[in-house]
Amino acid sequence: ALLAIAVRNVQLLGQMRENAVRDQLTGCFNRAYALEALGLELQRAKRSGVPLSIIMFDVDRLKRTNDEHGHLTGDAMLAAIGAQLGQTLRSGDVKCRWGGDEFLVILPNTPLGGAENAGASLTREISQLALPTSQGDLAPTVSVGIAVAEPGETDPIPLIARADAALYKAKHAGRNRFVVAQSTIRAVN
């Protein structure tokens, strides 16, 4: 009986940890986990010399969806996007809900070309979702920003800031697209 209680306690601790790092609506990891995982991946990329990219995206016009169709429809849209991430991306990619309608995806061992392919796939696959509403199906779109870690970069914040700036460029360029952040490395003449 004591062994069964101990095993159950270990299971409960595991469930508590999982609940603490997962967003319940989307099934993605949460922001705190994203920062921790990105810091570790940057350290690994620096140590091993492998490329690391990230994608930051947000759902275009989610507020309008909430206003016109209700928050339950907006929640269903976010949940569908979370599920789509699992189908579109690799199992080793770290899918996170950054907050509200923003998501962050960590792409370990991924150079710029691979990140661009992932960004294009996400944009395309999410726009093909069809969420039923009383006024017909609703297809979400996303604006995507892509950034590649600089050699030796270990602080997640500047990398996230570059991806976020690229996301807003995508939004201002018309939404439903991806933009790659500019490198911060300057050529020496």
Fraction in helix: 40-55%
Overall number of strands = 7
Principal-axes shape call: flat
Classification by helices and strands: alpha+beta
Mean pLDDT: 92
Question: Low-confidence spans: pLDDT under 50, at least 5 residues?
Answer: none
**Beta-strand residue percentage:** 15-25%
Helix-strand string: HHEHHEEHEEEHE
- The count of helical stretches stands at 6
Produce a short descriptive summary:
The protein has helices at 2-21, 31-48, 62-69, 71-88, 112-127, 156-172; strands spanning 52-59, 94-99, 102-108, 131-133, 136-138, 142-148, 177-180. It contains 6 helices and 7 strands, in the order ααβααββαβββαβ.
Give a written overview of the molecule.
It is a single chain. With 189 residues, this protein is of the alpha+beta class. It is 51% helix and 20% strand. The protein is built from six helices and seven strands, in the order H-H-E-H-H-E-E-H-E-E-E-H-E. Helix 3 crosses helix 4. It is flat, with a radius of gyration of 18 Å. The mean pLDDT is 92.
